[in-house]
């Protein structure tokens, strides 16, 4: 059985269509990313899955249960960490977790959870005294305290410093390894590419594509690219004649060669035959950013300078 099934979901706010026929499946045990620009409809979609918003039409199944009619069953199986979750300033970490544990019939052991999330030493610390990363980890602990089979994590690392981002990514992998299916909402491509088994690209309330990060990159990015500086002049036809090469651009001594298949060895062989040395040779690594641009025509959000160094 799929952990989640979303079929033809529609939601409008007044005249504004926020979610426009969204469908996807999430398999049990995977980390499934939903990526898209601000306002794409990601949060509306996941809040509908969590039963926090009522869709206008379409159907949702959480392990076979409908969030609008089978609320109790969904609540027992689904943990939610939503954007901007916050707690009273004076509550301690242990109190917050005990409180949420009391809402469930079979909660996880709060002590074990704090251990796993690296918050054991902060048990007695008040919420207001926690760092941004620790607050995020507490909100993940709250999402997991009901022992869910599926966890929704929304914009998990926004505002975190590089080390906290990396730690949080490790944590998400540990959650998945513990058997929890993860639905990860993010507008950061590096995060989605690093963590997700599969990704849905959402734009303007619609699903533009679903696939593995590698599959989306391959599908959306035309070929590989090699950049180098030629040690001496070279006739373009030497490279355009190669079957692997689809395009050659030259500015002064700088070459950009696009192609497919065994592009690198083919180009290297041709250059060697011409006794040209390729200096500063670089093979451009395609990323999910490229796929996102190709699929949506938009430039993805970048981590802020303080977040970016986590790459
Ligand atoms: N309660 C609401 N009332 C009116 N409009 C809303 C409401 N919630 C969301 N919207 C609008 O619906 C669209 C989708 O919003 P949503 O929050 O689902 O997108 P998102 O992809 O999660 O974006 P973000 O990353 O900024 O949270 C946006 O244009 C938003 O302004």
TrEMBL record:
Subcellular location: Cell membrane
Keyword ATP-binding assigned: yes
Keywords from the named record: Antibiotic resistance, ATP-binding, Cell membrane, Membrane, Nucleotide-binding, Translocase, Transport
Any GO MF annotation of the entry: ATP binding
Classification via CDD domains: ABC_DR_subfamily_A (cd03230)
UniProt cross-references to SUPFAM superfamilies, sorted A to Z: P-loop containing nucleoside triphosphate hydrolases (SSF52540)
Membrane topology summary: Peripheral membrane protein
Gene Ontology annotations of biological process type: response to antibiotic
PANTHER family to which the protein is assigned, alphabetical: ABC TRANSPORTER ATP-BINDING PROTEIN
UniProt protein name: ABC transporter ATP-binding protein
Organism per entry: Cellulosimicrobium protaetiae
Lineage: Bacteria, Bacillati, Actinomycetota, Actinomycetes, Micrococcales
């Amino acid at each position: 059985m799929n952990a989640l099934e979303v079929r033809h979901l529609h939601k409008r706010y007044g005249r504004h269509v926020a979610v426009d026929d969204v469908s996807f499946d999430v398999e049990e045990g995977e980390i499934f990313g939903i990526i898209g620009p601000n306002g794409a409809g990601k949060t509306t979609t996941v809040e509908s899955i969590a039963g926090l918003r009522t869709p206008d039409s379409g159907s949702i199944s959480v392990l076979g249960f409908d969030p609008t009619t089978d609320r109790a069953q969904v609540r027992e199986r689904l943990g939610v960490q939503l954007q901007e979750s916050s707690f009273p300033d004076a509550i301690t970490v242990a109190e917050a977790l005990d409180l949420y544990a009391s809402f469930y019939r079979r909660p996880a052991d709060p002590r074990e959870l704090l251990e796993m999330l690296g918050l054991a030493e902060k048990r007695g610390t008040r919420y207001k005294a926690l760092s941004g990363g620790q607050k995020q980890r507490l909100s993940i602990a709250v999402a997991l305290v009901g022992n869910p089979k599926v966890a929704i994590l929304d914009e998990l690392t926004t505002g975190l410093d590089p080390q906290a981002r990396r730690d949080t990514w490790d944590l998400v992998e540990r959650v998945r390894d513990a058997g929890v299916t993860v639905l990860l909402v993010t507008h950061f491509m590096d995060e989605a590419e690093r963590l997700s088994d599969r990704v849905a690209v959402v734009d303007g309330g619609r699903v533009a594509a679903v696939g593995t990060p590698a599959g989306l990159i391959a599908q959306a990015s035309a070929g590989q690219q090699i950049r180098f500086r030629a040690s001496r002049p070279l006739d373009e036809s030497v490279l355009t004649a190669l079957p692997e090469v689809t395009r050659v651009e030259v500015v002064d001594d700088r070459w950009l060669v696009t192609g497919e298949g065994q592009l690198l060895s083919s180009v290297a062989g041709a250059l060697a035959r011409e006794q040209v040395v390729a200096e500063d040779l670089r093979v451009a690594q395609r990323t999910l950013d490229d796929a996102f641009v190709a699929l949506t025509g938009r430039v993805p959000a970048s981590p802020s300078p303080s977040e970016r160094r986590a790459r």
